[in-house]
Specification:
about 260 residues; mainly alpha; Serine Threonine Protein Phosphatase 5, Tetratricopeptide repeat
Length: about 260
């Protein structure tokens, strides 16, 4: 009788243990819940703004005076003017070479400007633009950074460096630079647009919506901004707003192609 009771207890214990193991297995093999990633179209303008490559007016240099008339002060002034003429010569030629696609020649010209005047921030910026277009992004960042150090309120240098940071996966630095560009120039539409794209990529959809809306306010003809905002509205289930933006985008982009 004692033996039967012991067997019964062992059987009960084994049954309970088996049940526990079975439940544990169910918990372990349960499918993990996954969150769907939001696919955001990367419709970002990456072409450097051409107006930044426009050359300032060259100040005409008066004819040289004879050596008899020159004192030390006028010699210094004349030397400075001659250097200014030389700088403008290389800078203008660099811009012309850029315009016709002679990028290596443009780099040489901007480098000559920097050799003459290491504080000429636009030469660094423009050379950075050329490196940017050639895909030499490290040199591009270096030149944009030099331009910013020489001229800390140069919003276009911040904007272009942000673009490069975005292309190299440094989204945090890109956001910082776009934010700085906006702080300097609140009318910088491209900075709002591109920062909105990065916010979307990071899953910060509300910030993305805010930036894209501001970009549209600044440039109501930006069809790509309407398209991107329409996609953001879809994330929030705002179907009517999404439909309106996508239709507006199609209209604007179709008109631009005509």
């Amino acid at each position: 009788m004692v033996k039967y009771s012991s067997v019964k207890n062992i059987y009960f214990f084994c049954t309970v243990l088996t049940s526990i193991c079975f439940i544990a297995c169910l918990e372990i093999t349960e499918e993990p819940k996954t969150t769907e990633s939001i696919e955001v179209p990367l419709e970002v303008e990456v072409t450097p703004i051409s107006q930044e490559l426009q050359v300032e007016e060259v100040t005409p240099v008066p004819p040289k005076k004879s050596s008899v008339e020159l004192n030390e002060d006028t010699k210094k002034n004349d030397d400075a003017k001659n250097l200014s003429v030389l700088i403008n010569k290389y800078f203008l030629r660099g811009n012309n070479n850029f315009d016709v696609g002679k990028y290596q020649e443009a780099i040489k010209d901007y480098t000559e400007v920097i050799k003459i005047d290491s504080g000429f921030y636009k030469a660094y910026h423009n050379r950075g633009v050329v490196y940017d277009l050639l895909g030499d992004l490290d040199k591009s960042i270096s030149d944009y950074t030099s331009a910013i150090m020489l001229y800390p309120t140069y919003d276009q240098a911040y904007y272009n460096r942000a673009r490069v940071y975005g292309r190299t996966g440094q989204s945090h630095k890109a956001i910082e630079d776009y934010t700085q560009a906006i702080a300097i120039n609140p009318q910088n539409q491209g900075a709002y647009h591109n920062r909105g794209i990065i916010f979307a990529e990071r899953g910060q959809i509300e910030k993305a919506l805010s930036d894209l809306s501001r970009a549209i306010e600044l440039n109501p003809q930006d069809g790509i901004a309407y398209y991107n905002r329409g996609k953001m509205y879809q994330v929030f289930g705002m179907n009517e707003e999404s439909k309106a933006d996508l239709q507006k985008s199609q209209e604007l982009l179709s008109n631009q192609q005509e």
